[in-house]
Design goal:
Helices cover 33% and strands 22% of the residues. The chain is α/β, with parallel strands linked by helices and 247 residues long. Strands 1, 4, 5, 6, 7, 8, 9, 10 and 11 form a nine-stranded mixed beta sheet that branches. Strand 2 (22-23) and strand 3 (26-27) form a beta hairpin. Helix 3 packs across helix 6 (181-188). The longest helix has 13 residues, at 104-116.
């Protein structure tokens, strides 16, 4: 079965309690859950958390939630615990808990290569860069791909480097991941690589260990919530696109 799993932790340096912040009348974690539930290729949606407050909120809106360890350093590790304890999960999608307007179509797009090709072990989403400023923003991750849309490298720096004003297409990474069960469990048991530590990007652990990451091109430009000031822009987007999000 294919599960969408939304890691959610209450503690956050920049935005404590972020999953429960209200966005146009609903907790953010509920909006993420509802969007993931609309994906046609998803069989089940779970929220994985170490917070009783988040658990109570999820149960209040009728969502499904599992408690996980407080010791996890990343969402991937939290995902792996859920998969390890649930033999029904064949494919797991890591849906970011701070993406309350993620289109369900994007989740389906990321999954489709796994349906068509059993050899694909891990996947993610990318988009074309349309703003030069994004290339120089270390908070926006860049990716270089091969001719078959497999990732070659991810970086916070501008890659490929633009020499002599040469024309080049640049791609930006969207942090949604798809894993086959055995790949996720193996990845979670591998040590951090030097490049992962240097860039602060856990997906580099996969590339370092020769795990290919299939990328899927999308037009979606994420509207995430990183700091409290981001809430207003998301609410404005929801109000302009009310038919997509309901009440």
């Amino acid at each position: 079965m294919i599960y969408a799993i939304i890691p959610a932790r209450y503690q956050s340096t920049r935005f404590p309690g972020k999953p429960l912040t209200m966005i146009d009348g609903k907790p953010m974690i509920q909006r993420v859950y509802e969007q993931a539930s609309k994906a046609r290729l998803i069989d089940e949606v779970l929220i994985a958390t170490d917070s009783e407050k988040i658990k109570e909120a999820v149960l209040t809106f009728g969502g499904k939630v599992v408690m996980t360890s407080e010791k996890h350093n990343s969402g991937t590790d939290r995902l792996a615990e859920v998969v390890l304890n649930n033999n029904d999960i064949d494919i797991a999608v890591n849906v970011q808990g701070d993406e309350p307007v993620i289109p369900p179509e994007c989740i389906d797009d990321a999954l489709r290569p796994f349906i068509d090709n059993p050899d694909i072990k891990m996947g993610t989403l990318i988009r074309k860069c349309n703003d030069q400023q994004d290339l120089n923003n270390p908070n926006i991750v860049k990716v270089v791909i091969d001719k078959e849309f497999n990732a070659l490298y991810f970086s916070r720096s501008c890659i490929p480097y633009i020499r002599n004003n040469a024309e080049s297409v640049h791609y930006l990474h969207i942090g949604l991941y798809v894993y086959r069960r055995e790949t996720l469990l193996a990845l979670s048991n591998l040590p951090q690589s030097d490049i992962e530590k240097t860039e602060g990007l856990e997906q580099l652990r996969a590339l370092y260990n020769n795990i290919r990451i299939k990328t899927v091109l999308t037009d979606y430009s994420p509207i995430g919530v990183d700091i409290p000031e981001d809430v207003e822009k998301v609410e404005q987007y929801i109000k302009k696109s009310r038919s997509l999000f309901g009440g």
